[in-house]
Each structure stands twice: as C-alpha cells, then as structure tokens.
Specification:
CATH architecture: 2-Layer Sandwich
Order of helices and strands: EHEEHHE
Largest sheet: 4 strands, antiparallel
Mean pLDDT: 98
Number of helices: 3
Low-confidence stretches: none
Structural class: alpha+beta
Radius of gyration: 13 Å
Number of strands: 4
CATH class: Alpha Beta
Length: 96
Amino acid sequence: MITHIVMFKFKDENKKNNIFKAKKILNKLEDLVPILLSIEVGINFSKEDRAMDLSIITTFNNKSDLNEYAIHPEHIKVINFIKEVIVHSKVVDYES
C-alpha cells in the first residue's frame, strides 16, 4: 500500500474560496480516477505559523498506480487549478 500526502499553503487572494474549491474538486477524484483507492481532504483550523491550509491523504495499491495517478488527465486538471492559487506545497510518500 502506498500513501501519498500533500499539504498546501494558499495565496491570500481569494484564499477561503480557493481552499473550498480545491477541496471540492479533489474529493471528486475518487470517482474519476479508478486506481485511487481513497482520498481524504482536510481544511486546517490551526493558527500556528507553521500550519498549512489544506492537506490530502491518498492511497494506492503500488508505486506504479501512484505514478499513473500523477499523469491522469483528471488529476492534471486539479493540479492546474491548485498551482495557480498556492504559494507552495509539501509532499510525503511512503509504503506500508
């Protein structure tokens, strides 16, 4: 099992709306990308300086499926939107 975690820090401009839009379109991926076993999308409530704004936890059967997900057209659509509205992101991938 592969777990893929990404955390995003959003730009201040239209931040709240962009976070909610990102959550909505990310959640739709579970129905659009068959190799995606699960996705959990969370909006941060912590006020700490080191806090990120949104995180996703996704699972896949293997590394090959994760690589296929990375280039899936529906995932690319989401990435294109998110790249426009974030400052930066962090990722962790691990096998269990």
